[in-house]
Amino acid sequence: MTKQIIRTDRAPRAIGTYSQAVRVRDTVYLSGQIPLVPETMELVAGGMDAQIRRVFDNLSAVTRAANGSLADIVKLNIFLTDLNDFALVNQVMAEYFQEPYPARAAIGVAALPKGAAIEMDGVMVLDD
Fold it and tell me: Residues 89, 94, 95, 99: is their CA dihedral positive or negative?
């Protein structure tokens, strides 16, 4: 098994002992993204809408670095500190994804790194 580490400066650098993504054959495992601005490594300014968009933008940058796109995501996990934001996530997600949508989970959590309100990770499959 050959692992390819995916890195891009267009998404936040890892803040721990992990890679932004790892590719094994045609599958890419995307590490969790929180709404950090890549250039400053600070949380994006604004409310929940801005945080959701920043996370999708960060995920998109990593998928592009792996020679794919958000459309290649087959499984998306969403972690929220407030499940009342679920409807807003759906609304914003509809701007970034088209049918067929990926499989998905939304999980309520007590806290996320750096005080973020949302984190997403996923799995994408690429055509070789």
Answer: positive
d(CA 66, CA 72): 10
Backbone conformation region of residue 112, classed left if phi is above 0, alpha if psi is from -120 to 50, else beta? beta
70 touches 56 (CB < 8 A): yes
> pLDDT tens-digit profile of 66-95?
999 999 999 999 999 999 999 999 999 999
Residue 34 has a CB neighbour count (10 Å cut-off) of: 22
Residue 128: band (very low, low, confident or very high) from pLDDT cuts 50, 70, 90: low
Q: Say which CATH number the domain at 16 has.
A: 3.30.1330.40
Spatial neighbors of 94 by CB under 8 A, at least 6 apart, are none
- Nearest of 16, 22, 90 to residue 34 by alpha carbon: 16
- The number of folded domains in the chain is 1
Report pTM: 0.96
The domain of 121 spans 3-125
